[in-house]
Amino acid sequence: MADPFLSIQHVRKSFGATTVVQDFNLDVEPGEFVSFLGPSGCGKTTVLRMVAGFEEPSAGKIVVAGKDITRLKPNQRNVGMVFQAYALFPNLTVAQNIAFGLKVAGMPKADTDRRVAEMLDIIKLPQMGDRYPYQLSGGQQQRVALARAIAPKPKLLLLDEPLSALDAKVRVSLREEIRSIQKKLGITTIFVTHDQEEALSISDRIAVMYGGKAEQVGTPFEIYNRPATKFVANFVGTLNVLEGTVTDAASGKVKVSTQEVSLKGKLNGSKSGDTLSLALRPEAISLGRQPGRDSSLSGEISEVHFLGSVIRVRVGIGGNTVSLDTFNSPATPPPAVGEKAEISFSSGDMLVLH
Amino acid sequence: MKSGRFWAWVVFVLGAAYFFIPLIATVEFSMRMRRGAYSFDAYQIVLGDPRFQATFMYSVIAAIFTIILGVLIVVPAAYWIRLRLPQLRPVVEFITLLPLVIPAIVIVFGYIRMYGSNSPLPFLGSDTGTNSLLVIGYATLALPYMYRAVDTGLRTIDVRTLTEAAQILGAGWGTIITRIILPNVLIAVLSGAFLTFAIVIGEFTMASLLNRPAFGPYLQNIGANRAYEPAALAIIAFVITWGCMSLIQILSRFAPRSSNRPN
């Protein structure tokens, strides 16, 4: 396997007595798009700022393309960055903003003009070069910020919640645009976000962070379907958590309320009598018995929400409530609150949270 | 409603009268030099006086150097405090207010004691040294206005993010200050500069005690010995000050606008 392009090794960051990042490790391959996903205060932006050089790690090192950049100043790192607040220079036009890094690097004027035109084409704003930032919408400003960041051909692109200040529709289109530009240029990218949908939709890999640590690093598929910790399972996607008690550890029997389900091979280390948290994604559950689903639980419908194409149903099972979505079918009336209902699922889809 | 508007007009007219009557009276008096007729004789005498031209030019040049010195000290200091030492802001604000509390005469006596021709730093031993000391003194007097103007300008931009954006694009401190920060607070700097100009043009104490041929001592001298010319000079000084204020207003139209402060 080739050496990683970016290697963050045992990085720690403390502000006074508070440690905000602890023993963070991550290797990023060339051209890879990695997202740092986590709630506010989990340390994701601090790690990004350490890669950018705005914060100095208290311990550990950061290596880019085989070179230790831990103590280098931000202007010596050849890293591009897009900020949440756009950070376009208000006194410069769009073209001058994009040209800023090129001029600082001493690129001749003709080459600079050519590169600026190329960048304006990439971000699909070829006619906007003479405008000032205040004359652009938020989405356009962030595209200009992206063009400015990639114009000097940085080794690494850092995106610090670049879509947070935009409205939902622009956010979706811009994230797709960012991903397509990143793929086209093959630039190694770190993307910080607290929006799981954003991270799942555009990343090659995701580092889910909590309490200054990477809880899990994996592909979006792995993160969603095989969460390594309770936090990851809860943070990424919607999850139904059921409390159960192990009745027979050897055969994998677990009692949920008064009903039993079989989780053979999933109870590693649990003993009979242990209490477990069991998790099921809503899309893994069907209302009624369905072929191919080996487990079921009975309960009573407690809530029904008609959402147009789907109907969200909540089923009470003892002290637990399970939420699931069913497609709306005009020929079938929606289930009624108070009806008895059976939910079925494949035991393989049930996660045991540790 | 109508009665409210009436009283508003009464207050406005009273306020305007309070402001304009002394001004009109001064203009009227300054034009009565020729017996029995209004004329601009006093203005002609004042503007034609070589001492007026020499002292005015001296003060203009002193003001320009004071503005340059003030900008060189205040812009990087205010920028650095906003960027890295925000906890020091109250202390620095207090220090910049001191020239308003400590009379100029105290400062200038301090200078004379500290920088006399027998001291280790004999600024007062030469004309150039004394002129430099005067400019330094003026920069101190103008500090409260310059600092506040620049600090207010810095408040309107996101100093930290703009600095980081420029840094990550490879810019050093010099480039950041001259190409990003200064252009974005230029109007604030100009406001501070014009206030500095207005202070320096009329300053008397420092120039007089350091025995410099400045406009302030000339004004005082004319005021003590002539009748109509001081009124003409007062009007000229007033026009200069208002000219400065108007320039600030005109230049502020060209201020760079940020997206969150579009108008």
UniProtKB/TrEMBL annotation, chain A:
Keywords: ATP-binding, Cell membrane, Membrane, Nucleotide-binding, Translocase, Transport
Single Gene Ontology BP annotation: quaternary ammonium group transport
Catalytic activity: ATP + H2O + polyamine-[polyamine-binding protein]Side 1 = ADP + phosphate + polyamineSide 2 + [polyamine-binding protein]Side 1
EC number, UniProt record: 7.6.2.11
Gene3D superfamilies in alphabetical order: 2.40.50.100, P-loop containing nucleotide triphosphate hydrolases (3.40.50.300)
Transmembrane feature ranges: none
Domain ABC transporter: 6-236
SMART domains membership: AAA (SM00382)
InterPro entries according to UniProt: AAA+_ATPase (IPR003593), ABC_SmlMolc_Importer (IPR050093), ABC_transporter-like_ATP-bd (IPR003439), ABC_transporter-like_CS (IPR017871), Mo/tungstate-bd_C_term_dom (IPR008995), P-loop_NTPase (IPR027417), PotA-like (IPR005893), Transp-assoc_OB_typ2 (IPR013611)
GO molecular function, one term: ATP hydrolysis activity
Principal EC category: translocase
Record-level GO cellular component terms: ATP-binding cassette (ABC) transporter complex
Family: Belongs to the ABC transporter superfamily. Spermidine/putrescine importer (TC 3.A.1.11.1) family.
Subunit-structure text: The complex is composed of two ATP-binding proteins (PotA), two transmembrane proteins (PotB and PotC) and a solute-binding protein (PotD).
Function of the protein: Part of the ABC transporter complex PotABCD involved in spermidine/putrescine import. Responsible for energy coupling to the transport system.
Identification of the protein by name: Spermidine/putrescine import ATP-binding protein PotA
Species annotation: Mesorhizobium metallidurans STM 2683
From TrEMBL, chain B:
Top-rank taxon: Bacteria
GO biological process: transmembrane transport
ABC transmembrane type-1 domain location: 52-249
Membrane topology of this protein: Multi-pass membrane protein
Annotated transmembrane regions: 7-25, 56-79, 91-112, 132-150, 185-210, 230-251
A GO CC term assigned to this protein in UniProt: plasma membrane
Record InterPro entries: MetI-like, MetI-like_sf
Family: Belongs to the binding-protein-dependent transport system permease family.
One Pfam family it belongs to: BPD_transp_1
Intracellular or extracellular location(s): Cell inner membrane; Cell membrane
KW Cell cycle (keyword) present: no
Keyword terms, alphabetized: Cell inner membrane, Cell membrane, Membrane, Transmembrane, Transmembrane helix, Transport
Full protein name: ABC transporter, permease protein
